[in-house]
Amino acid sequence: xxKTDKSRxxxxxxxxxxxxxxPTYDTSKGTDWGGTCYSARELRTARSAEEAASLxxxxxxxxxxxxxxxxYVVFTVAHAGFNxxxxxxxxxxxxxxxxxxxxxxxxxxxxxxxxxxxxxxxLYMPPNDDHDIPDADLKRMGWTDQRARMEFIKRLIREIYxxxxxxxxxxxxxxxxxxxxxxxxxxxxxxxxxxxVNTGVTANTVRHPxxxxxxxxxxxxxxxxxxxxxxxxxxxxxxxIGAWYATGKKAPTDARNLYRYTVRTISVxxxxxxxxxxxxxxxxxxxxxxxxxxxxxQLGGLLKSHDGIYGTVPGRSYVTKPDSxxxxxxxxxxxxxxxxxxVYLHVLNVPESGYLELPEAADGKCFVSADTRGAAxxxxxxxxxxxxxxxxxxxxxxxVVRLTAGR
Length: 407
What we know:
The protein is α/β, with parallel strands linked by helices. About 25% of the residues lie in helices and about 20% in strands.
């Protein structure tokens, strides 16, 4: 089995989080949890788990994830109604054969697609989620008793590893996660597996004891909001682009807005929890909501064309605090190389004076040079700290100034 590098997730800056799901409803409960729609013109959900799985195009999805520059993908193996996107013998053994695909395997198509780009896959699973599962199905699955439910989850996890092996890197457990024995079982199946445990629709500040990372499922949609006004955090941040599922929305913003929020998030002190995972996904017909695929590709272009994004850690010389926003009077945020020899100033608001005035570095660093894309910038030591003369053609989205540390 291929070894999963957990540090790769800790250092990841950008991911793609997709809810792609087929729901079943218990009308007596009055639930209508929602699910992926067929298309923008046909707002129906799948007729079966088989239809959802058979329509999925793993190669096209992987191409979008790659274009975004995603360093990992979180994808629902099950969500609404706990319907599985592969032909599960574990589910069929419960008598709920309709709660899994008959023969099509969306997860296999996804692992094959992502392997081309070496993008790790983490499977989303809600092991305590019963609000949209009919009562009769709950009983068949043993879902009404916690011990029986967790034994079912373990059988399912064993089946997943038997089917996909090194094609998956771990699990993203929702709704407070499973019991400790389930996480222990994941480690038995794959000692190198990554485990994310989310404790609810909230902004979490404490790592769940069974989780490798601090996870915040919900930071809301970016729809109609200037991202500079949104708070950033050190947990894994998941923000929606439109809705959790593809339901007929349109691209709610532009790539500049997404890019600036991404940069601010990855700069937060302590953000070694897999960065930001933008949440969106395709319709059943494999198109995306109006403008969303283009938005992801444009965001990826910005991320890849600016220095100081990938392979960096949050700035220690110029620190971004959790829950901070960015006022127009503030210059921006910083990242740096892991060894601290290079500091990347993301100048999101270029000073009108043309000079960036910095205080002394918080960690006492001294700098010997400044440049942007290899072009040297004048750097002066001042009584207060440092002054950098900004280029006249400064990038209005993000002028990245690299400071080289020295003595």
